[in-house]
Amino acid sequence: MAIAPHVSASKRALIAALEQKALQQRYDWRRHARPNQLAPTGAWFVWFLKAGRGFGKTRSGAEWVRQRVDAGFGRMALVAKTPADARDVMIEGESGLLAIAPPWHRPTWQPSNRRVTWPNGAIATVYSDEVPGQLRGPQHDSAWCDELAKYRNPQETWDNLMFGLRLGADPRVCVTTTPTSIALVKGLLHDPRVIVTGGSTYDNQANLAEPFLAMIRARYEGTQLGRQELYGDVIEQAEGALWTRERIETARRKIIPPLRRIVVAIDPAATSKGTSDETGIIVAAVGEDGDGYVLDDVSGHYSPAGWAGRAIAAYHTQGADRIVAEVNNGGEMVEHTIRTVDPNVSYTAVHASRGKRTRAEPVAALYEQGRVHHIGLLTELEDQMCVWSASDGEASPDRVDALVWALTELITGDGGDGLGFLAYAGERIAASKAQAEPTPDPPVDENPWIAALPRGDP
Ligand SMILES: Nc1ncnc2c1ncn2[C@@H]1O[C@H](COP(=O)(O)OP(=O)(O)OP(=O)(O)O)[C@@H](O)[C@H]1O
Ligand SMILES: [Mg+2]
Q1: Is the distance from CB of 197 to CB of 61 less than 8 angstroms?
Q2: Fewest CB within 10 angstroms: 79, 164, 208, 417, which?
Q3: In this structure, which residue's CA is closest to atom 9 in ligand 1?
């Protein structure tokens, strides 16, 4: 700003000092960062910032590197998926090291020797996951890995980085990424020594362009992938699980169609197992079209009166026809609990006599056919469905149990007449129940009755 000639020297000095202060504040990350973008305080070795797209991950990583440089650390590794990512995002990008540097401490970037150098002598070298061997040998006191979850050789790159991260008394690594369910990411997130912070795309809404927000909202909101891309959640899929994310996603609906019959199914927490157990409560229906619809999941940690109240509230608000409850953990008690809250609800007790997998398979087969639709996202239920490997001895999760009871009741229950393929499936389930000695079920795709089910229009 030009200053008029008559202004005194002391005023000029004051103006210069004010300008200097304003400039310093402009580059003071602590003033601008949201708390979940700042490096954790105290002693840590790995900081894992997992967050949705556009959260400000790259900016947070770059600012952390700047802070390390200012604190006197000077042998840094910048690790990206490709050399182009390192250059275009971590260094030259809008949130990269060059853009965030204050004018009084600008680094220089020499692409030919993959090096960023600061005036105080600190050096950062660029490594890419495309060449994991590059990281074998060099030692560092600090490292920043951007978008680790997208690497092609994440484990090898990470291991090499770790071997060389041993300079000085306080080496540290910062990971900034939208997570995926790769083994390295899951391992780090479950490691109690790793400090995890993060948040969602929406946290940074004020700094994101409206078209970007509109685009990713339209693409991801209300989907499982959206939990990963917008909220930074890890979406897991177990080997051998009866359900897959993809199947559930493809069949998902936003709007409830006309319905024929609605049930609320309860898998009450066994009081003997302590208070940590959840009570599964699922509301599901058969539509006029003969497909199954999962309307709501109101499972949770409840006292007996609590789960009965919650289930009965769902029964009334959804206009349900029946409540079914598994009574393996004390039948009279379950009925008594329900009747105490509302003596008039229509209620059926169900007993688990067959194995959980055997019970769940016909239901899973209906999902395979795309005949069961979730209304909106049922996050915790879907996690349990896709993470339960359904192997012998593994306890099935409560929400899944309630789901299986709800759909089984819709298939076989007294309102099952005329429900098209569901009634047919019910006959087959009844027939398999009637067998004196239960034989192990064949794998789903070889199961003749499932194969014989009429397929609807896709
Ligand atoms: N606390 C903040 N204050 C102001 N601007 C911010 C802040 N955090 C991030 N930004 C800006 O928001 C934009 C997006 O940030 P950034 O590129 O770091 O996000 P990202 O999570 O790495 O995105 P992507 O998922 O695309 O990699 C950038 O312009 C960045 O400078
Ligand atoms: Mg980024």
Answers
A1: no
A2: 417
A3: 56
Judge contact between 230 and 200, C-beta under 8 A: yes
- CA trace torsion 54, 58, 63, 64 (10° rounding): 120
Q: How does 137-162 read in b/e, with b if 16+ C-beta sit within 10 Å?
A: ebebbbbbbbbbbbbebbebbbebbe
Q: Give me ligand 2 centre to Cα 163, in Å.
A: 26
**Helix residue ranges per DSSP H, 388-420:** 398-412
In the predicted model, what is the mean pLDDT of the chain?
87
3-state SS assignment for residue 194: strand
Residue 83's pLDDT is 95
Residue ranges lining ligand 1, Cβ < 6 Å: 32-34, 37, 53-59, 94-95, 178, 204, 207
pLDDT band at 16 (very low <50, low <70, confident <90, very high): confident
pLDDT-based confidence at residue 422 (cuts at 50, 70, 90)? low
Residue 442 pLDDT: 43
Return the best residue to mutate from 48, 58, 60, 144 for the ligand 1 pocket (most ligand atoms within 8 A of CB).
58
pTM confidence score: 0.73
Residue in 286, 283, 277 with CA at minimum distance from that of residue 306 = 277
Residue nearest to atom 28 of ligand 1 (CA): 95
pLDDT tens digits, one per residue of 84-135? 999 999 999 999 999 999 999 999 999 999 999 999 999 999 999 988 789 9
Domains and CATH numbers, the chain: 29-231 (3.40.50.300), 245-452 (3.30.420.280)
Helices (H) and strands (E) in the chain, counts: 17, 14
For residue 71, name the pLDDT band (cuts at 50, 70, 90).
Answer: very high
Structural contact between residues 291 and 371, judged by C-beta atoms closer than 8 angstroms: yes
Among 26, 38, 59, 66, which residue has the most ligand 1 atoms within 8 Å of its CB, making it the best to mutate? Answer: 59
> Could you tell me the two tokens for 412?
């076989």
Q: What's the confidence (pLDDT) of residue 273?
A: 46
Alpha carbon separation from 274 to 301, 302, 394, 395 (Å, rounded)? 11, 11, 18, 15
H or E element that contains 78: strand 75-80
The predicted-structure confidence for 365-384, as pLDDT tens digits, reads as follows 899 989 999 999 998 899 99
**DSSP assignment, residue 375?**
B
Q: Which residues pair with 194 in a beta bridge?
A: 46
228, 365 Cβ separation under 8 angstroms: no
Q: Which residue has the tokens 């960023």?
A: 116
